[in-house]
Every structure is written in C-alpha cells, then in structure tokens.
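User: Sequence for Methylcobalamin:coenzyme M methyltransferase below. Tokens please.
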Amino acid sequence: MMTPRERLRATLNHQQPDRVCLDLGATWVTGIAASAYARLRAALNLPERPPKVHEPYQLLGFVEEDVRQALGVDVVGLWGRSTIFGFKNDGWKPWTLQDGTAVQVSKQFEYSEETNGDILVYPKGDRNAKPSGRLPKGGYFFDAIVRQQPIDEHNLDPNDWADSFGEFDDEDLAHFEREANHVHQQTDYGLVMNFGQGGLGDVAFVPGENLIEPKGLRDPNLWYEYLLLEPDYIRGIYELQTQAAIRNMELLHQAVGEKLDVIIISGTDFGGQEGMLISPKTFRSLWKPLFKQMNDWVHEHTTWKTFFHTDGSIVPILDDFIEIGVDIINPVQCSAAGMEAQAFKDTYGDRLVVWGGGVDTQNTLPFGSPEEVYDEVSERIRIFNSGGGFVFNNIHNIQAPTSSENLLAMYRAVKDSYATAEKF
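Assistant: Structure tokens for Methylcobalamin:coenzyme M methyltransferase:
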C-alpha cells in the first residue's frame, strides 16, 4: 500500500496509484466553505468545534487532521502568513457567519456592519482605511470593493503596481521552512504550495484588497478593456509580476528545497460557462510567454510540479498550456462547453494531470440527491483515474449550502472506488 506522498507522486507522474489520490482543503481552490465543513465534522461524528476561517475572502474552513484521517486525504497545503485582505492569521477570535455557524477568525480580522446587514472588512485590519471587501447580507463569500483612484490615461505607469509584488521576508521564509519540515518529518502527506503570485490579471487580486491605497488600474471590468486598449501597460504590469514571482520562487526553494511536491503558479480564470473570457490571441500575446518563463524556472531549478487553475471552457488554449510545460490543470469544469470528462481524458489525460473535476459544485453537489452525487463521483473517478494522473477533488470549493448527506455520498463513492482500483 502506498503512503499518501507516494500516491501523490505516482499520480503526478501519470502512473497508476493503488487508489485514487484525494485532496480536501490543500489549496484555496480545492477547499470547503466553513459552514459546510462544520456539517461535515458533525456527519463524521468528530468532536464539535468552531471551524477556523483561514481564507476569509471565500470563508473557507481549515481542514483539520482528524478530518483528513477520517476521509483518507493524501495532500496538505503550505500557506503564507497573510490573507488576501493583508492581515495575518495570527491568533483566533470567535465570530458567527450569516447562516448562524459559529467560527473562528483571525484576531486581525476587523469588520463593520452596514445598516442593510452587509459586512465590510478592512485591509490589514486597519479601520482607518477604506474597506476592501463586502459580504452581502445572506451571502456566502466576500466581494472585492473597487477603490480605484483617478487614472491619467496619458501617463499610465506599470510601476504603480509595485506595492502588489513584495518579496518574501525572513519571517515568511522561516515559516515556510518550519511548516515544510513538519510535514516531511511528522507526516507522510504530499505538499502543495499556495503561491499564486504568477496569477497575471487574476481578477480576485486586481482590486488590491490587501493594500491600504491601491494605485493604478484596479477595476476588473476596466481591466478587460485595457487588455485591448492599453496592452503595453498591462504587459508592463505582468512583466513586473513575473520578475517578482520568480524571485520569490527562488527564495522559497532556498527555504524548502524539494520537500514541496506542487506549486500553484496561477489562479487566473480564462474561461466562462460557454467559452473563453479573452481571445486565444490575447492569451498568447500577454500571458503565454510569461507563464512559460515561470514554468521553465520551476522545471529547470526544482523537482516541483506546476499547478494552474482556470475555471470554465478553455479548450482553445489547453494545447498552449501543454506546450509551455504545465503539469497540472485545475479544476476541469466538466459542465462548461467542450470540457466533458471522457473527451478531456482521451485528449489530454496523458499530458495534463487533472486536479479536480470530481463532481459539479454548481449543481450536483449542492442541489442534487445523494444518489446523483454518488453516481457522478463514481463515474468521474472511473474516467479520470484510469492510467493515473488524477487527484480527486470537487470542481472548485465546496459551497456553503451543501448538505452533509451529499458530502458523505461523495466520500463514500471515493472510498468505494478503492475496491475496484486494480481494474483501472
């Protein structure tokens, strides 16, 4: 029987593992909403305790060791010290989600409530700053607040973005070294780094939610316009970001060496439900060369595998990802146009590791019956795990309204697949 680390590494090398490799909560795109996590703990008959909301933007719950053991999880995440809102997960205090779930949040999490019930969160926990995130009343995650300052379109300067691309400091590197050593010395899990600094134009980060006063273009809607109207300005920002990302990967490698199995380079979305959000031509002009620089650096200097997240229908650029040497694609949104599971596996399965794709989190998992969840999960494992190259996870994060019955059906299907693993 393989250890979790051996199972992940076999999977990443397109070798057939002894059973499907399983992830829950190792990354910010393979996690679980804190309220759903609380229900999962209860359904597994584990001790009740308020989930830690370690990723406040999406209100994700930190997956604890007893849950990993109960489900047979194979991989854990290496996380930075700061959140998307710029404050650190440094100590915890009680809070209550809008659906009534008791949770814990960082002691640096500072918020206010508007008269309509919306929750506003402050960058770096600084109440003197303008709020940078809004949780609508009854909502399940924060939306960024655009705080763009006036722009002189005749004097656009990519260096306005320099504050967004900081270098890891000694405390960051000591943290990464300590956490990576712990995983390797005290556990047999695989390890994935939640890096994401190569996410060029990732609209989750464009507004600068972590900054007190973000400079430059910060409106995601205008961003897409400027791709066509001011491509040199956007390219200049992307080049600065790429240089900073490579420098931080150098520092990260000095700190953790080959203890890392996977690094998430980018979380930029390029697809929607029916097609691309940008043209393939624009992708090849503005993104592809810089993605290649980052991907090449990893493969030339480390043994890490590279992980790229993009939602939606991305068929026109999948060969581009393969051409620049991307190892892993997430989440493979099978409900999007052209992304059907069997066709994807047949066409790309020997060249791209599928991390995700296990069940539809838009419809089946939150709104289907347990039987429908079980059947879909079983079918996806049958397709994607044939010949290796598949890490099971839901398609993006598990949503807050998901029932415990459906969560148990999903993991029951995963475990039932072990009995037939030798047939793949």
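The chain is about 35% helix and 15% strand.
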